[in-house]
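Protocol step 4 of 6: structure prediction from sequence.
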Amino acid sequence: MLNETIRALSREQLLSLLESDAKNWLATDGYWFQSIERKYGMDEAMFHDIEMWRGFAVTEARRLRKFLALPEHPGLDGLALALELRLHSRCSPSALERTADGRLRFRYLRCRVQDARSGKGMPLHPCRVVGEIEFAAFARTIDDRIRCRCLSCYPEITDDSCACAWEFSIPAAE
């Protein structure tokens, strides 16, 4: 599969291409969403966005599990590795931290989607409902014990230091 042109690129060129491809992927996501939004309205666009992310998050997580050779239950450490390699994480600054009680917190410090919509004078994308499905599906695909909780995401921003914040945990066995 990789052609000779790609194989001949330097490490720096490959890293630049990885970032560019992630931005192109996110732009594609935005263009199809905005096309549906213009023709059918936000509710219809959100329906399709949720369905797309429900499937894509699982596919992306499966491929990253394989790439990272993660075991069946890699826990929050495995999730942390996978979150850092997501396409969106390659083009939007993010931060990971562990809480004193062992939970994992992931934040997008800036969001290219919201920045692009603001720059076009469009209303912000009400992404919390999509994110709840996306991040939960991604985390469960990495390790089916992991649970996800939204800490802050538009339209319910509770943390002004970031675009959105998510917390992951593995509940104690009952």
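Step 5 (inspection) to follow. The first strand starts at residue 94 and ends at 98.
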